[in-house]
Amino acid sequence: SRVAKPDGVVVMTTWVAEHMNGRLFGAMAPFMPPPPDGVEPPAVWGDEEHVRAVFAPTGRSITIERDVTPVEFPSLDEYLDFMSAVLGPVAANRARLEQEGRFDYLRAAMREVFAPFNEADDGAFRASPQYLAITAR
Hints:
Order of helices and strands: EHHEEHHHEE
Mean pLDDT: 94
Number of strands: 5
Low-confidence stretches: none
Helix content: 25-40%
């Protein structure tokens, strides 16, 4: 299906699959409902080769740039609280996971993803999650 007029430009951003937020998708997967049939998992869009392969049949010229979006919180726990409240899939499934007794396991999985990316050594949480800026002309 088409998302732009033939001469239109498609611009999108996505988390880098092998970096912090891209890895988060993999850590969350066992706790989330499966995607509908025919829908790719979100993390594949963070793989440059996949993006190029998807757009190849369109004949569009693809540019992909990497950048970071720094985050800073007083602690990793406060970042986890924030992400638990605002990250769509987590917030939408939290009540179910709490009823099933699995929310703390999801939170622990998120901690395991985020902790190695912490650039702070003072008890705070500072990280620079990488994203792709994709333009298809």
